[in-house]
Amino acid sequence: MFLIEEWRAKLSNRSKLTTKPRYQFLTLIRNSEYPIICLFCCLQIYLHMKMVFWGPGQLFAIFLVLIVVLVSLWIYFRQSIFRCDSKADLKGKTVIVTGANCGIGFYTALDFAKRNARVILACRDKIKAEKARQEIISLSQNSNVLVGLVDLCYMKSVKDFADKINSEESRLDVLVNNAGVVSTGKPKEITDEGFETIFAGNYFGPFLLTNLLLDLMKKSAPSRIINVSSVVNKFGTIDFDNLNAEKSFQFQKRYFDSKLAQILFTRELARRLEGTGVTANVLHPGSVASKLLRNLFILLRIPIEFFIKLFCKTAEEGAQTSIYLAVSEEVTDISGKYFVDSDIKESETNPLSRDKDIAKQLWDISESLTGLKDK
């Protein structure tokens, strides 16, 4: 704070200003603990520049302030990123990561491979999955990496994949439901099974897959289920008459609702798994520069991707919370919670996500729609 007071004093008296205030300001930015301090200093600089320059000079001052604000926020953001520092070894354990051919899923799977786990990449595209497998093997020096084909938008594909895992694998220690769909690039797409693809890929598919693998996970206990949701769950609602877009469709709304459904699913799952040795938690990975936006309309995608790349986490950084929940001893007995980085952040979830009646009703309907009740 001494630096701030000194800077304010200097700006209040132009005659006492040093000849190179910009260098002092940059030093202050680097040492600043909170971006709000940087914003305050930017305002002071603007007021000073306004006194010095007139006309075009004011535009220059505004431009300078904007640049410094962006840089200061970027520095603060980079310094505050969480990384899992657990040294846990996963030798002898089997993990499944859905959507592991790119983005957060790829780096989650890579980390598990480096920890000597048997890693199954659950992907829908065989070519992309095989390419990811070869890269993970090369980077981790762990050849025990396999590809499993599954399209979470199609319940038959989910059942076929689960049957294969249950018949070929002797254990399953970690399941990371990472795969996600933002937009298919079409106004609305319904599968031949009657499922709207965004909600199916983000919720119905993971719901069915998890339940079909539960017996194997219980046999392998202690084991962990990690669901990747998003902070946008706050904007979601659950309309039981519109789960498959029977009445209306807006792709943003479908995404928000599906992320809320993931949290409701996690909480109800954790309740049902009490005493089994299997835990279930859900997370927000942070704002991540991933490929989820690849199907957005190009005029929307370009500006969004610019700011995402500037201020958002990389996919590797976004994978850290998934990794933490899978390997850390700190969460061994924690279940049914919503995490941001390594912290439980229940206050950052939609109040509806804590409604037990809605969670149970959603579970019952999901059982019926996915055919799980018939198993």
Chart the SSEs and their pairings:
Layout: H1 2-12, H2 21-31, H3 35-52, H4 56-79, E1 94-98, H5 103-114, E2 118-123, H6 126-140, E3 145-149, H7 155-168, E4 174-177, H8 197-219, E5 223-228, H9 251-272, E6 278-284, H10 298-311, H11 315-318, H12 320-327, E7 338-340, E8 343-344, H13 356-370
Parallel strand pairs: 1-2, 1-4, 2-3, 4-5, 5-6, 6-7
Antiparallel strand pairs: 7-8
Helix pairs in contact: 1-3, 3-4, 5-6, 7-8, 8-9, 9-13
GO molecular function, one term: oxidoreductase activity
Organism: Elysia crispata (lettuce slug)
Pfam family, one: adh_short
Explain what the structure shows:
The chain has 375 residues and is an alpha/beta fold. It has two domains: 2-79, no CATH class; 94-374, NAD(P)-binding Rossmann-like Domain (Rossmann fold, 3-Layer(aba) Sandwich). 51% of the residues lie in helices and 10% in strands. It has 13 helices and eight strands. The chain has helices at 2-12, 21-31, 35-52, 56-79, 103-114, 126-140, 155-168, 197-219, 251-272, 298-311, 315-318, 320-327, 356-370, and strands at residues 94-98, 118-123, 145-149, 174-177, 223-228, 278-284, 338-340, 343-344. It has an eight-stranded mixed beta sheet with strand order 3-2-1-4-5-6-7-8, sandwiched between helices. Helix 6 links the parallel strand 2 (118-123) and strand 3. Helix 3 (35-52) packs antiparallel against helix 4 and helix 8 runs parallel beside helix 9 (251-272). The longest helix is centred in the first third of the chain and has 24 residues, at 56-79. The chain starts with a helix and ends in a 5-residue tail after the last helix. The relative contact order is 0.11. The model is unreliable at 1-37 (pLDDT under 50).
